[in-house]
């Protein structure tokens, strides 16, 4: 947001912001109550009473975002301009590092017999077998025509490949005949710029098929969703704040890395995430901390468990506030109402606490209080970062 003027307004100081994201925390009413309404949240209530509240639209009115665009919006990037292609998403979800200019592609192990694809999923081989095959490929293929690549097993028969070469442009049709009984379909360039990418993907398929010649049922692969990493200006460059992303799941670690945050590995629980926050609080200006389980419970359609997860998140709050960050923001990357069992388009409550934040009349961190009393109103997700910068005293006056 305000990309043209932001570089002139950013000013540095030693303030610290903590950005807590409870994934999918927003909901919609079931018998008149949302999960946030139903949860007992003494710590969130206490903080809400001395904070500004509002509701944000992650991508736009009526749009149901994936977690990728949801987080990009929270980090202040335009999720429509910075779209994350399928290949990139698969690579991030597999815990791979994606750099600017990389080309990422999703792969499926498949079966080929007498020149025809007979199973597009190689008998749905288990993940352990997939890991084995990926290791075999890694051992036997150093590069593709001099281009370095990373490959990582995903779930079942799926894997992701990241080619490190900025000359590889996306715009390649899937190398997947979509049905069995047909010969493999080579990757085809959609425009002259992507011809090299198509050629490299086809070379990769040939090499994999050569290496796996004696394997059954996985003796070839199909490649889909080729995508370049979005052209994102790194977080610190954009905001002048050094930043870390503390998360347990690969997808969110990947998203944080994508915008240039430092991301620690090996964290398994919320307790460990908070420990890390304490240990490194002095080292960064901006700390993004992700909590996954509100979303998982919503997607399972389990109202009570989502309530319990919100309460767990609430219980962790005091140990975070102990650090006395200058600004604390609490929100979600989208809503995941348990009544829908899916992400949704509903606006998400957002809480902003800081020395200069207006104490409005909201008394609870709920959709209801945010709508009825929240001074932030209904805002696009990208406005949250602007509010953080302003409340940190990091935005100079615009104009004379
Ligand atoms: Zn999410």
Give the averaged pLDDT, no decimals.
Answer: 95
Uncertain stretches: none
User: What spatial form do the alpha-carbon principal axes imply?
Assistant: globular
CATH class of the largest domain: Alpha Beta
Helix content: 25-40%
Biggest beta sheet summary: 7 strands, mixed
Throw out a few tags for this protein:
single chain; 400 residues; alpha/beta; Alkaline Phosphatase, subunit A; Alpha-Beta Plaits; five-stranded antiparallel β-sheet; 32% helix; globular; binds zinc ion
Walk me through what this model shows:
By secondary structure, the chain is α/β, with parallel strands linked by helices. The protein has 2 domains: 6-84 and 232-391, Alkaline Phosphatase, subunit A; 89-227, Alpha-Beta Plaits. The chain is 32% helix and 18% strand. The strands form 2 sheets. A 7-stranded mixed β-sheet has the order 8-9-1-10-11-2-12, sandwiched between helices. Strands 3, 4, 5, 6 and 7 form a 5-stranded antiparallel β-sheet that branches. β5 (149-153) and β6 (158-163) form a beta hairpin. Residues 23-24, 67, 70, 295, 333-334 line the site of zinc ion (ZN).
């Amino acid at each position: 947001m305000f990309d043209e003027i932001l570089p002139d307004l950013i000013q540095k100081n030693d303030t610290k912001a903590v950005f807590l994201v409870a994934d999918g925390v927003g909901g919609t009413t079931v018998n008149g109550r949302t999960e946030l309404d139903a949860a007992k949240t003494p710590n969130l209530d206490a903080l809400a009473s001395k904070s500004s509240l509002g509701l944000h639209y992650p991508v736009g009115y009526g749009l149901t975002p994936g977690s990728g665009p949801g987080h990009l919006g929270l980090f202040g990037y335009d999720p429509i301009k910075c779209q994350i292609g399928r290949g990139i998403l698969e690579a991030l979800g597999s815990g791979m590092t994606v750099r600017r200019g990389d080309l990422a592609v999703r792969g499926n192990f498949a079966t080929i017999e007498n020149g025809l694809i007979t199973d597009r999923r190689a008998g749905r081989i288990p993940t352990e077998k997939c890991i084995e095959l990926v290791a075999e490929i890694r051992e036997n293929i150093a590069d593709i025509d001099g281009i370095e690549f990373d490959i990582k097993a995903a779930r079942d028969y799926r894997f992701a490949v990241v080619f490190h070469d900025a000359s590889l442009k996306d715009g390649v049709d899937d190398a997947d005949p979509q049905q069995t009984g047909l010969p493999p379909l080579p990757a085809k360039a959609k425009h002259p710029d992507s011809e090299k990418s198509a050629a490299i993907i086809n070379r990769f398929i040939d090499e994999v098929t050569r290496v796996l010649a004696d394997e059954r049922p996985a003796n070839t692969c199909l490649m889909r969703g080729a995508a370049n990493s979005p052209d994102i200006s790194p977080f610190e460059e954009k905001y002048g704040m050094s930043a870390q992303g503390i998360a347990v799941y690969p997808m969110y670690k990947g998203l944080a890395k994508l915008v240039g945050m430092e991301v620690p590995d090996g964290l398994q629980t919320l307790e460990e995430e908070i420990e890390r926050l304490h240990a490194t609080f002095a080292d960064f200006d901006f700390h993004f901390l992700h909590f996954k389980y509100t979303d998982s419970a919503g997607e399972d359609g389990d109202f009570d468990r989502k309530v319990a997860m919100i309460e767990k998140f609430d219980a962790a709050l005091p140990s975070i506030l102990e650090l006395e960050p200058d600004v604390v923001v609490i929100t979600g990357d989208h809503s995941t109402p348990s009544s829908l069992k899916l992400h949704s388009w509903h606006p998400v409550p957002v809480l902003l606490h800081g020395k200069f934040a207006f104490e409005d009349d909201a008394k609870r961190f709920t959709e209801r209080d945010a709508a009825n009393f929240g001074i932030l109103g209904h805002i696009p997700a990208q406005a949250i970062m602007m509010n953080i910068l302003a409340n940190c005293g990091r935005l100079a006056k615009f104009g004379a």
